[in-house]
Amino acid sequence: MEVNIDEILKEGKKNMDKAIDHLKFELSHIRTGKASAEMVTDIMVDAYGSTTALKNVANVSIVDARTISIQPWDKSQLKTIEHALFASNIGITPMNDGEFIRLTVPPLTEERRKLLVKQSKQFGESARISLRSARHKVIESIKKAVKDGFAEDLGKLKEKDVDEQVRNFEKVVEEVLKVKEKEIMTV
């Protein structure tokens, strides 16, 4: 029966890791005033009759701290990519020179920085909700196992372990948010 509890704990930890990974993924898409390929690589482009991510139809590179260069593998896709960048609403006007598309990332205003910090905190709250949801599922599974014959005192210890694990993951969320807030607010 204990192997079953260990599997439940592993699954819970895996779900908590996913919540942290998703938070980091979402935060990587927030513009901080510096050029980052992650800002555009997942923008969807209509290419050859289907919709695909920009990273699948072009090479995205960073030229300098404020410039992103996009070189399509097929130059006939320049207009399509440019249209997708306009439609994505990232707040940057693409410049098409016939070979490349360049995006110049403007410096952020103080007001925009505060909005981005607020947005990043919302992503952090979503991560916390995911952590609590994973905790709830694990605790419920442990309680069910106790009803099915697992030792009650061991069940309580496992619940305490889960609570400690959730607290550790919440500290990771706070640290990730603190780093991102510092990155956003640095002029």
Note the main attributes of this structure:
elongated, 2 domains, Topoisomerase I, Chain A, domain 4, alpha+beta, 4 helices, 187 residues, 4-stranded antiparallel sheet, Gyrase A, domain 2, two-stranded antiparallel sheet
Summarize the model shown.
With about 190 residues, the protein is α+β, with helices and mostly antiparallel strands.
- Overall mean pLDDT stands at 88
Helix and strand sequence = HEEEEHEEHH
Q: Helix proportion of residues, in percent?
A: 55-70%
The CATH architecture assignment of the largest domain turns out to be: Orthogonal Bundle
Largest sheet: 4 strands, antiparallel
Strand order of the largest sheet: 3-4-6-5
Number of domains: 2
For this structure, the CATH topology of the largest domain is Topoisomerase I, Chain A, domain 4
- Per CATH, the superfamily of the largest domain is Ribosome-recycling factor
**How would you classify the helix and strand content by structural class?**
alpha+beta
Taken from the alpha-carbon principal axes, the silhouette is: elongated
Weakly predicted, low-confidence segments:
none
Radius of gyration: 22 Å
Overall number of strands: 6
CATH class of the largest domain: Mainly Alpha
Query: What percent strand?
Result: 5-15%
Characterization of this structure:
- The chain is of the alpha+beta class.
- It has two domains: 2-29 and 109-185, Orthogonal Bundle (Topoisomerase I, Chain A, domain 4), CATH 1.10.132; 37-104, 2-Layer Sandwich (Gyrase A, domain 2).
- The protein is built from four helices and six strands.
- The chain has helices at 2-28, 78-87, 110-147, 152-185, and strands at residues 44-47, 50-53, 58-64, 67-72, 94-96, 101-104.
- Strands 3-4-6-5 form a four-stranded antiparallel β-sheet, with helices on one face.
- A hairpin with a 4-residue loop joins strand 5 (94-96) and strand 6.
- The radius of gyration is 22 Å and the shape is elongated.
- The N and C termini lie far apart (56 Å).
- The mean pLDDT is 88.
